[in-house]
Write a structure and sequence with these properties.
The chain has 414 residues and is α/β, with parallel strands linked by helices. The protein contains twelve helices and 18 strands. The strands form four sheets. Strands 1, 4, 5, 6, 9, 10, 11, 12 and 13 form a nine-stranded mixed β-sheet that branches. Strand 17 and strand 18 (380-381) form a beta hairpin. Pathway: Cell wall biogenesis; lipoteichoic acid biosynthesis.
Length: 414
């Protein structure tokens, strides 16, 4: 008996129908283009190294967009595919196994299904083999009308997993032109790939002049590959404008998960990142991803919104702009409208870890000590863990309830 009202109340919000939110439908009947960038973390946005911006395309675009700088990844062990699931369902991923292992034969309540009811044609685009992460089962379950995968993009200009993002965007653009000429409205979920670990770029695609200390390090390579991802994103944006698809679309972008983490990070990387950030590279920096939404021509839909959010909030935020009232259960909320939040985490930190408005509470297990990070200072804060009345304990229980509800709801859909 999970209801939207109960979900929102548990997170500390009064439930209000989407259609009563401010700016509901401000982008009604526009196409929707959602770009998921591989390994993109927020800490590079707006930053320069050696006097060169790392993401100049994104930085310039921010001025015409809503930028949510305080959004965190919530994926489980399904990594990129969990991010696809979260974005399109606003349900929690399963955690210890890739959610895509369980979706075969299901019909999930989802963004493609909801937009399908509004007459949208929906496609998803990714230059890898479609069986990777069981996407051949995920895409029908999500209700995409079509997908574009490895056989469409070919194997030329390969970097790491597949063809370069440059080639990927060019071919995707060809497909989008055709889709838009055959359908009144479309939704395209566009998933980049080049900035995947180990971030090793061919010489001719290295656009940054890095300081010597960064050369050949994981951190330097990461910056180099993100710089490339941003550069070809800029070409894609220009092509969308030229094709007349920019002005009548909502364009959103986010990072699927961190690129700099775990055993990959050597002590030299920690030092470089500390130097670059001006503070230690913490779990907050690691999980913080950008979320950017633009409705070209709508001045009202611009600015920095510092509400704490997660990948679970992306679908409701976009549905609000498109003026579509969800007809199913979802666990996020429209991030533009709500400033309170309670976000569950699992797998990469112990289940029942969470973000609230001010803090990141990391629960205890065999690998982690219980600890709390202040979202503003990025420092640890003290809690009386023995005191059962601590509000962290209440929120921790609420998060467990939310995760349980999401899992039970998912199970009921089988
Ligand atoms: C695989 C690609 C990367 O198709 O999306 O997945 P990841 O290893 O980042 O989960």
């Amino acid at each position: 008996n999970v209801t939207l009202k109960r979900i929102q109340e548990l997170k500390g919000n009064d439930y209000v129908q989407m259609s009563e939110h401010e700016n509901f439908g401000i982008a009604k009947d526009r196409n929707l283009i959602v770009i998921q960038i591989e390994s993109l973390q927020d800490f590079v946005i707006g930053k320069s190294i050696n006097g060169q911006e790392i993401t100049p395309t994104i930085n310039q675009w921010l001025g015409d967009s809503l930028y949510f700088p305080d959004v965190y990844q919530q994926i489980g062990s399904g990594n990129t595919s969990d991010a696809e699931f979260l974005m399109n369902t606003s349900l929690y991923p399963l955690g210890n196994q890739a959610t895509t292992e369980q979706v075969g034969g299901m019909q999930l309540p989802s963004l493609p299904h909801m937009l399908g009811d509004e007459g949208y044609h929906s496609v998803t685009m990714h230059a890898d083999d479609v069986t990777y992460w069981n996407r051949d089962e995920l895409y029908p379950a999500l209700g995409f009308d079509d997908y574009y995968a490895k056989e469409f993009y070919g194997e030329k200009d390969t970097i790491g997993f597949g063809p370069s993002d440059g080639l990927f965007y060019e071919r995707s653009m060809d497909a989008l032109k055709e889709i838009s000429s055959n359908h009144e409205n479309f939704y395209a979920h566009v998933l980049s790939l080049t900035s995947h670990t180990p971030f090793e770029m061919p010489e001719e695609k290295k656009g940054l002049r890095l300081p010597e200390a960064y050369e050949g390090t994981l951190t330097g390579n990461y910056m180099q590959s993100v710089h490339y991802a941003d550069q070809v994103l800029g070409d894609f944006f220009e092509d969308l404008k030229e094709a007349g698809l920019w002005d009548n679309s909502v364009i959103a972008l986010y990072g699927d998960h961190s690129g700099l983490h775990g055993k990959l990070l050597k002590s030299e990387d920690q030092d470089l990142l500390k130097d670059f950030l001006g503070e230690r590279y913490s779990l907050l920096n690691r999980f913080n991803i950008p979320f950017i939404v633009s409705v070209p021509g709508e001045k009202e839909v611009t600015g920095v919104v510092d509400h704490i959010g997660g990948q679970i909030d992306m679908m409701p935020t976009l549905l609000n702009l498109l003026g579509v009232e969800p007809d199913t259960i979802y666990f996020g909320h429209n991030l533009w409208h709500y400033s309170e939040n309670l976000l569950g985490m699992r797998y990469y930190v112990p289940t029942s870890s969470f973000f609230n408005k001010e803090t990141f509470f990391i629960a205890k297990n065999s690998r982690f000590d219980e600890r709390i990070l202040d979202l503003t200072s990025n420092e640890r804060i003290e809690n009386d863990f023995e005191n059962p009345s601590s509000h962290f304990e209440d929120e921790r229980k609420d998060i467990l309830k939310l995760l349980q509800w999401s899992d039970a709801y998912f199970e009921s859909l089988k």
